[in-house]
Amino acid sequence: MSTDTAPAKQEFRNYETGALVAAVREHYRKMRSRQTYDYVQRMKAKYLTFDRPMHLWDAMVELNKLVDVSDPDMDLPNVQHLLQSAEAMREQGCPDWMQLVGLIHDLGKVMYLWGSDEDGTSEAEQWGLVGDVFVVGAALPDTCVYPEFNALNPDMSDPRYNTELGVYEPGCGLDNLHLAWGHDEYLYQVLRHHQPNRIPEAGMVMIRYHSFYPWHNEGSYSQFLCEKDAQYMEWVKEFNRYDLYTKSTKIYDLDEMKGYYMPIVEKYLGSGVIGF
C-alpha cells in the first residue's frame, strides 16, 4: 500500500486547471444539455427494475475497472475511492454502518455494466452515471459546476420547468424532488427495495444526496427545503468529510479488505446479494 498523502483541501474540486479538466468540462456539457425532466423519468422506468442479482463484493470488483470521468481529483479506479473513504471512517472510529456507507456509496456506478452510450450510462459515456446532480423540472441555479452550460438544457426554454419552483411546491422537501439521474438515486432505490436493509436513515440520506453539491455545498434550492432537510444537511456534511477529503494516491488491495468488511455487509444487508 502506498504511503502517499492526500493533497491539501484547497486542491480538491478544481474545475479550472489540471490535466483532467478538458474531459471533465465536456462531461458536464453533455450532462447539463441532456439531463431533462423527461429523461430522468425514462431512466427511472428503465433502470429501477431490481432484477439483476449481484453480490455486493462482485460489484466492488467491477468498479475496479471504472474511472469516474467527472472527478477532477482522481484518475484511479473508482473502488479505490470507496476504500479510502471507508478506511478513513474506520480510522476515525465512525460507526460500522457509516463505514459500510463509505464502502458502497458509489456502488450505483455498476450501472455501467448494463448501461448504454445513448443513455449516458456506459463506461464511454458517463453523463447519466456520475457528476454533481441538480434538480430537474425547475430553473437551474448558477451554483452548478460550469453554469454557462445551464442554457443548453432544453427545459430552460420550457415554461413548465424554467421557473424557480417549476413542477414543485414550496417547502416540498428534498425527498419529493427529481434530481439528475445518476449513481446516487440508483443505489438509494436499489437499497430501499432490498431486504434486509438495516442501514440507518442517516446512511441512506448520505447515499442519496452526497453528489447534490448545489444544495449541500452552495446553499441553493432553499425554496424546496422542509424542516427535516436541516438534519439531512448535517448528515451529508459529516459524510462529505470522508467522501471528498480522503482522496489520495493510496492503493488498497480489495481482497485484503474483504475479511473486515464482509461481516459488516452481512450485518446490515444480509447475504450481500443485491437486486440491481
Written description of the protein model:
- The chain has 276 residues and is mainly alpha-helical.
- It has one domain.
- Helices cover 40% and strands 2% of the residues.
- It has ten helices and two strands, in the order H-H-E-H-H-H-H-H-H-H-H-E.
- The chain has a two-stranded antiparallel sheet.
- The longest helix is centred in the C-terminal third of the chain and has 16 residues, at 254-269.
- It is globular.
Describe this structure in a few short sentences.
Helices cover 40% and strands 2% of the residues.
Largest β sheet strand count, sense and barrel closure = 2 strands, antiparallel
Number of discrete helical segments = 10
Radius of gyration: 18 Å
Distance between the termini: 31 Å
Helical residue percent band: 25-40%
List the topology elements.
Elements: H1 21-34, H2 37-47, E1 53-55, H3 56-63, H4 78-91, H5 96-104, H6 183-192, H7 201-209, H8 213-216, H9 229-243, H10 254-269, E2 273-275
Antiparallel strand pairs: 1-2
Helix pairs in contact: 3-10, 4-5, 5-7, 5-10, 6-7, 7-9
Key traits:
single chain; 276 residues; mainly alpha; two-stranded antiparallel ribbon; 10 helices; 2 strands
